[in-house]
Q: What sequence folds into this?
């Protein structure tokens, strides 16, 4: 995402913690197409394509209690990763083709 969209340093696009200005959300709301674990990366891609400011703020997590429903299963984590990479590539190609 950093390379293809010339964006700021992004270390955890899968993080579900987001803070969005109301006016920015209004610009993006009608364009969301995915849910679940891929929603965050799609939101970030749309923000970059709309020229919105994206700032990453480090979050320190406490140790996880229990097992993640996605990253706790290697197969699920791999499939999600491949799906997210495909999402990034589709958005980049789509933006180039619209020009």
A:
């Amino acid at each position: 995402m950093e390379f293809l969209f010339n964006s700021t340093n992004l270390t955890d696009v899968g993080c579900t913690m987001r803070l969005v200005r109301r006016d920015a959300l209004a610009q993006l709301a009608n364009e969301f197409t995915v849910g679940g674990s891929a929603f965050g990366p799609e939101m970030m891609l749309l923000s970059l394509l709309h020229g919105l400011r994206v700032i990453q703020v480090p979050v320190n997590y406490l140790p996880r209690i229990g097992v993640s429903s996605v990253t706790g299963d290697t197969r699920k984590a791999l499939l999600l990763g491949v799906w997210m990479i495909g999402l990034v590539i589709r958005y980049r190609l789509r933006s180039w083709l619209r020009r």
Notes: The helical segments are 2-5, 22-28, 39-49, 74-97. Residues 14 and 40 are 6 Å apart (CA to CA). The chain has a mean pLDDT of 88. The first helix runs from residue 2 to 5.
